[in-house]
Structures are given as structure tokens and as C-alpha cells.
Amino acid sequence: MGLMTLHCCRRFYETHFISVFSDSKMNIGVYFVGLFHYFGAILAILCEAPGILNRGDFEAMNYNFSLRHLLGALVFFWANKTQFDSAVILGRLRKNEKGKISTTKHFIPHGKYFELVSCPHLMCEVVIYLSLWTILWGNTNWPYVTLWVMANQIECGLLSHWWYKETFKNYPKVRKAIIPYVL
Question: Ranges for the 3-oxo-5-alpha-steroid 4-dehydrogenase C-terminal domain (predicted)?
């Protein structure tokens, strides 16, 4: 639950202090799907946490940290850092040297994982949820949350990639949408 809270707080900070959005509007349905997703993701973790639904099972709260948890946490932190770096790159495209917003136009992003994929921030979102799945192994709800995120982020990545290719004739041909060298 702590990692998910950290992720949500970072995303809040990123949205309010790093990202620069265009004047386009979000569909209200998409907005509510996003709210429902985070509510459902948190509920998926909490409803299977020891001592929540099964009050008598406090022995399960003796948490044994394993190599699987360590690897999942390391991948989680790498993906969060990489996603944040991607947001910074995107935000800087619309800011001047002093860090003030100067435009809402679209540009081709460059640097780090943008050299391999159009949407490294979406790739990282998938990796974040896969890493949480590794940590939450045995949770019967989390696989569905992860599969939803994978389907959603891959679709968004493909749509963005196709938009970039159509909009920018000089778009790098070697870039994939969301999975380096594959998709």
C-alpha cells in the first residue's frame, strides 16, 4: 500500500508542477474511468490485506520480506524514476530556459527512453504495475488491475505513436510505441 501511495503522490506532484498540458479537453468519461481505476486499485490491495477482511488472521501480518519483494521494489523505484524523467522531458518541451511555460504546441521528445519508444511514461506505468504484481503475488485481484493497465497503456501508446508519425513527417523511424524494439 505504501508503494502505491508513493506512486500516486509522485503522479500528483508531476501533474501539478512538471507537466504542461495543451488546451484540449479530456472526455468526462475518461476522467471518471481514471478515478474509478485508482479507487479500484487501492481497494484491490486493501481487501486482501491481512487483518482487513479476515480479522482473526493476524499471524499473516508477520511479513516475511523475500528476494521477490526486493526485486519488485527495485523495479518499481526504477520505473517511477524513469517515468518522472520522461514527464520532465515532456514538460521542458513547452517551457523556456527560465522554466516558464512558453507554448502548448507539440514537439518530438528526445532523450533517454524517448530514443527507443514514443511513450516511455506509459511503458513505465506498465512496469510499475507488473512490479507491484510481483510484490503482491498471491493477491487474486491485482492481476486484473495489472491486465487492465497493460491493455489501456498499450492502446494509448499505440494511438500516441500513430499520431506522432502522422503529425511529424521527420519522426524517428526506429522508435516503437511502448515496448523497445518490439511494439
Answer: 61-183
